Amino acid sequence: MVLSISTVLLNFEKNEKEMATNLDLAEEKREKVITRILAYQQQMLSSYNKRAKIWQFKLGDLVLRKAFVIAYWEGSK
Fold first, then answer.
1. Residues 57 and 63: beta-carbon distance below 8 Å
2. What is the mean pLDDT of residues 52-70?
3. Which of 39, 63, 70, 75 suits 24 as a labelling partner, its CA being 20 to 30 A distant?
4. CA distance 36 to 3
5. Cα(77)–Cα(68) distance, rounded to whole angstroms?
6. How many domains does the chain have?
7. Which residues lie in coiled coils (predicted)?
């Protein structure tokens, strides 16, 4: 087996400690990102709700509904 400089100089204990530290930092960063995403979603919801028009219908009100066209006429096949 041919040894390279990087394998000779590698300190396994230090490497394990650094990997554990990086894992902890990654978890913290993930939590910060999730918090920021939730804040953004809340802001977007608030912005949408400010502009949304509330419709209140009573029984008997006439409303326009989309008509679903069904192609049963001759020549539709």
1. yes
2. 85
3. 39
4. 46
5. 18
6. 1
7. 9-43
User: In degrees rounded to 5, what are phi and psi of residue 29?
Assistant: -65, -40
- One-letter amino acid identity for 49? N
Distance in angstroms (rounded) separating the CA atoms of residues 40 and 6:
44
In a domain, 38, yes or no: yes
**69 to each of 66, 72, 73, how far by Cα in Å?**
9, 9, 11
Tracing tokens 């400690």 back to the chain, one arrives at 17
Please report which helix (H) or strand (E) contains residue 22, including its range: helix 12-51
CA distance linking residue 29 with residue 18, whole number of Å: 16
Instruction: Give CA–CA dist 36/38, Å, rounded.
Output: 5
pLDDT at 3 over 90: no
User: In this structure, is residue 5 part of a structural domain?
Assistant: yes
